[in-house]
Amino acid sequence: MNKFIELPIKSIETEFQDLNLNLYKMIGANNPILYSAAEQLFKAGGKRIRPIILLNIAKSTSNNNNILIEQKRLAEITEIIHTASLVHDDIIDNCDTRRGAHTIHNVFNNKIAVLAGDFLFAQSSWYLANLNNLEVVKIISKIIIDFAEGEIKQGTKSFDNNISINEYIEKSFYKTASLVACSCKAITMLNDSSNVKGNNLYLYGKHIGLAFQIVDDILDIISTSQELGKPAGLDIKNGNLTAPLIFTLKEKKEIYKLIGREFQSNSDVDKTIKAIKETNSIQKAKDMAIEHIQLAIHVIENENLVKEDKKNLLLICYYILNRFS
């Protein structure tokens, strides 16, 4: 696979640049500490893959290639919700760096970080209400509920060596794929003239979201901390058993003992990573990601879209898989 696949931004370049500027305006707060904490996140950057997906869908499903103001705002709201979830994730996972920068709780403290995450969720809810579309509000609000449920599911299964692949996929849906799936559906609902069914794009978002999470979990094992922009092996250290480790348990029974003592030392984490790499568990996880990408591709190929727009939505699929090639 081509290692230089890039996210399709060219056709939405103006809207994408506006999004980055608007994110700073939208987090405006009277409290300088809250503002500083929220600003710290956006300064850390990121590829903004979620709004790129949404802006491409908005353009693809428009009859005149125009992206509505409400759709642009929804793409911004989605990125704020995602960013808020990262703040809380970093506290729960005790992660000191994110995208190569210090995390909010590391710069300030846990209390400020929790408040900053809550503040971003509140800001996104306010802007969401101002879209004046009750059905869209319902769909996007479900994402925040799913985030909480995903964290609880992950927490209750921490260091649980009986976790199944189905439970892992369910947790991954709540923590990652729900945001992509629900926002893909919602952004088509803002365009009354769209001839594409929101439920189809919900499935597209669901499958690329699941693939994205599986790839992320693979990268946590095979990449360096420098490449990830955060500590490598953090999932294992925190007892978050992901697909590669779940597959490995069937072949490497000695890992049960390391999980039982909750990976007490760094050498336990290193032994576990070594065991994973000695099996074909990474490939099995990759195959799962590929399956979900193929399902997403199937959705798009069966939609009546302009060739160039269809190509952009397919490029997103290939980009997600390309992250570990």
From TrEMBL:
CDD domains: Trans_IPPS_HT
The keyword Heme is assigned to this record: no
Co-factor(s): Mg(2+)
Lineage: Eukaryota, Rhodophyta, Florideophyceae, Rhodymeniophycidae, Ceramiales
One function term, GO molecular function aspect: prenyltransferase activity
Record protein name field: Prenyl transferase
PROSITE patterns: POLYPRENYL_SYNTHASE_1, POLYPRENYL_SYNTHASE_2
Keywords, sorted A to Z: Chloroplast, Isoprene biosynthesis, Magnesium, Metal-binding, Plastid, Transferase
SUPFAM superfamilies linked: Terpenoid synthases
Annotated GO biological process: isoprenoid biosynthetic process; quinone biosynthetic process
Membership in a protein family: Belongs to the FPP/GGPP synthase family.
Pfam families xref list: polyprenyl_synt
